[in-house]
Design goal:
The protein is an all-beta fold. The protein contains one helix and 24 strands. The chain has a nine-stranded antiparallel sheet, with no helix packed on it. Strands 4, 12, 13, 18, 21 and 22 form a six-stranded antiparallel sheet that branches. Strand 15 and strand 16 form a beta hairpin.
């Protein structure tokens, strides 16, 4: 069975690979690639972040008196998922807990990723299920990287993000990979002007958004609409120099706050599923 599968309908196509259940290509009806190509500046395209988003203090998960080494963004992005379904416009992949995962994350889980193309929209649903006998604490995030600029001849500074609703809440940055204190919002009403300098301090984190969609657009040019359900936070990331991508990242959870190093199930932003419980997290993207 091949490692990759392409879905599409003539108006939009997507390619997904089993390694990390990662979206690696997204093309419109004209065949224009909308996703970052995974160049030397950053080798990934749209990794799945699970069972944590960001870093834990000391890369250490603490549970029931034991310490486990769990690196940034967890392990799902580097594991091979199994194909569950492979159809013309939809596919589904699954990762389940095993001895390898329990060595760094001592909880039972099943993680399904479903990709579906309909009309001009790609929808990605992550379903987390707790098949174990105890609670399952976790965080989860999407990390898609889109071309920036969106088209040749445009400058990055001609682009902006437009949110569904005003977002006056605070912004947060990373300090040595951990979540820093709240700072004043960067938005001008519903608008966030974009420039490489925005990422001089690494990712921009917008916790607890009201909006459930954002429009990424160049003035008078192409646009993408990114929407989400089930997630509650948004990360924005690029590199301040030499990387032509913008990551628009719906998250549930963030890195550990600076100064916090407690039991994992008490970590701020962590969601916990009871035995037998499942939860869906969905994001979508459509060119406009």
């Amino acid at each position: 069975m091949t490692d990759r599968h392409r879905i599409g309908n003539g108006r939009l196509s997507a390619t997904i690979r089993a390694h990390g259940a990662e979206l690696i290509s997204l093309r419109d009806a004209e065949g224009i690639e909308l996703l970052w190509h995974g160049g030397p500046e950053w080798r990934r395209h749209a990794p799945v972040l699970f069972p944590i988003v960001g870093k834990l203090a000391g890369d250490t998960l603490r549970h029931a008196g034991k310490a486990y080494r769990l690196p940034q963004h967890g392990f799902a992005r580097d594991r091979r998922f199994d194909w569950v379904a492979r159809e013309a416009t939809q596919c589904r992949l699954r990762l389940v807990s095993d001895e390898e995962s329990k060595a760094v994350f001592p909880f039972a889980f099943a993680l399904d990723l479903t990709y579906e193309v309909a009309d001009t929209r790609l929808t990605v649903t992550a379903t987390v299920t707790n098949p174990g006998r105890g609670p399952l604490p976790f965080s989860i995030g999407a990390h898609p990287a889109f071309r920036w600029p969106l088209a040749p001849g445009l400058s990055k500074a001609e682009h902006r993000l437009s949110f569904e609703a005003p977002e006056p809440g605070p912004v947060r940055y990373l300090q040595d990979g951990l979540l820093g204190p709240e700072e004043p919002s960067l938005l001008q009403g519903r608008e966030l002007p974009l420039s490489p300098a925005l990422f001089a301090r690494d990712a921009v984190i917008l916790p607890g958004l009201v909006s459930r969609a954002v429009r990424f657009a160049a003035a008078g040019g192409p646009a993408l609409r990114v929407a989400w359900e089930g997630y509650r936070d948004l990360g924005l990331w690029s590199k301040p120099e030499g990387a032509d991508f913008l990551c628009i990242e719906p998250w549930y959870g963030t890195a550990s706050p600076v100064g916090w190093d407690g039991e994992f199930d008490m970590k701020p932003g962590t969601l916990t599923l009871a035995p037998g419980e499942s939860h869906d997290f969905t994001w979508s993207v459509s060119p406009e």
